[in-house]
Amino acid sequence: MEQYIIKGGKPLVGEVTIGGAKNAALGVIAAAIMTNEPVRIQNLPDISDVDILLKGIEALGAVVERPTVHEARLIGGSITTCIAGYDDLRKIRGSYYLCGAMLGKYKRAEVPLPGGCNIGSRPIDQHIKGFEALGAKVVIQHGMIIAEAEKLEGAHIYFDCSSVGATINVMMAASMASGQTVLENAAKEPHVVEVANFLNSMGANIKGAGTDIIRISGVSSLHGSTYSIIPDQIEAGTFMLAAAATKGDVLIKNVIPKHLEAVTAKLVEIGVEVEEFDDAVRVVASKRLVHTNIKTLPYPGFPTDMQQVMATLLCVAEGTSIVTETIYENRFMYVDELARMGACMRVVEGNSAVIEGVEKLTGAIVRALDLRCGAALVVAGLMADGYTTVEHIEYVERGYEKLVHKMCELGAAIEKVDSEDTKAIQKFKLRVG
Ligand code: EPZ
Description:
The chain is an alpha+beta fold. Helix content is 32%, strand content 24%. It contains 14 helices and 23 strands. The protein has helices at residues 22-31, 48-59, 97-106, 125-133, 164-175, 190-201, 233-245, 261-269, 307-314, 335-339, 371-383, 394-399, 403-409, 422-432; strands spanning 2-7, 13-17, 38-42, 63-65, 72-75, 108-112, 137-141, 144-148, 156-158, 180-184, 205-207, 213-217, 225-228, 249-253, 273-276, 280-284, 293-295, 320-324, 345-348, 352-356, 365-367, 387-391, 413-418. The strands form six sheets. The protein has a four-stranded mixed sheet with strand order 21-22-1-23, with helices on both faces. A four-stranded mixed sheet has the order 2-14-16-15. The protein has a four-stranded mixed sheet with strand order 4-5-3-13, covered by helices on one side. Strand 15 and strand 16 (280-284) form a beta hairpin. Helix 1 runs parallel beside helix 3, helix 5 (164-175) packs parallel to helix 6 and helix 7 (233-245) packs parallel to helix 11. It starts with a strand and ends with a helix. The mean pLDDT is 97. Ligand EPZ binds at residues 23, 26, 93-94, 117, 120-127, 161, 163-166, 187, 189, 304-305, 327-328, 371-372, 399.
C-alpha cells in the first residue's frame, strides 16, 4: 500500500503554482456533454476524480481526448446512452452532475448515487427537489438516480439549504428547460460561478451566479466552447496553512486572492503575515501562532474544506481555540489521528471541537480518512518532531495534484513509498537524517 513518509521540522520556503479547481472541473466536465459540438477544457487538475468522470463520459459514447493531462477535448454528440454505467463513478461525488447535464439535454438520466468523502450523510434531496420542480420524475432504484421528463419547464425553486451540488445540478438542467427558472438560496461558491460562466460560454443564459438568487432563461441547444478552469482555492489554502504551520515563507502563485479571503483573515488573526498580489499570495510565519475560533460557513464564510487543516494548525497555537463545523455532521473524524501525534483536541456537542494548543506535535503512523483529513495529516507531519507515516493516501491523491512533488520543491522532507518497501523507507531516513 502506498503511503507518505514525512520528516517534520523543515520550514517550507519558495514558490508553488496552484492547479485548476477540482470542484469546478467536475461541474464543467459534466456540463460539457450538454452540447453536440466539441468542447475544450484547459487547466484541468491531474487528479483521479477528473480521470474517473472523463472515463464515465467516454463510457456514455462521448469522444474524450486528452491532448495533455491538464486538458480534455470532449464531443458529446456521439453519446448513445443516458445510463452512466461506469463502475468507478460511484466512488466520486461529482458523478451526480451527469444527472443535471443529461436531464437538461436528453430529458433522461440514470446515474449512480454519488460517493465522495465520508464526512456526513450528504443527502441529495435538494437536487431531487429541483429536478422535480422542473417537471422531472425522479426515483432511486438499485443505487441509481433515475430522472426523466417529457419536457422541462422553468420554475421558481427555493433550496432548503445552501447546497453547491444541488445549485450546480439544477442550474445545468434548467439551462435547457423552456422558460424562466429562479433558484433562491443558491450556493455562492466560486465553482458555482465557474459552471455558470462555462454554460454561458456555450450559449446558456444564466444571471446572478455568485449571489443567492440565480435567474436562468432556458435555451433549446448549446454550442461548443473552449474554457480554462479557475485555480483551486482549497489547494491554495492548504499551501498557505502549510507555510504557516512550518514557519515558512512561500509565494503561492496562480490564485484568486478574493477566493482566499476567509483563510487569509484567519491567518492574519493568528499572527501570520499574508501579502496579496494580483494572482498570488505570500505567506510568512516566524513566531508562535496564537489561538482563534473557526466557524465553517457557505462561501464567502470560512470554507468547510479548510476546517481540518486549520484545526491542525491551531493544535500548536498558543491558547485555546474552538472549531465549529456547520456544513457537515461528521467532519471531525481526524481528531483521533491528530491525537496520535500529541494534539490536544476534543469534540464537544457533535459539531464543535475544543483545541488546547501544545508546543509541538510528534510524528506517528496515521491514516487519511478522507481527502482533507489526509491533507491535514500531511501538514501535521510537516510540523511534527520526527517521522510521520500517512496511510491511505489514495484519498489525498483524489484532490491534490503532485502534492509530494510540490512540497519537496518547497523544501519538505516527504516521499511517497510503498509500505512494504523497507529499503526505500530506510533510504529516505538516511537522506533526510
Ligand atoms: C461540494 O460538495 C464539494 N464537493 C465539497 O468538497 C464541499 O465541501 C461542499 O461542496 C461544500 O462547499 C464537490 O464539489 C465535488 P453541498 P457537495 O451540496 O456539493 C447538505 C472536498 O473536500 N445537503 O454544498 O456535496 C449536505 O449534507 C469536498 O473537496 C443536503 O442536505 O456539498 C451538506 O451538509 C468535500 N441536501 C451541505 O448541504 C442536498 O440535497 C453542503 O452540501 C445537498 C446537500
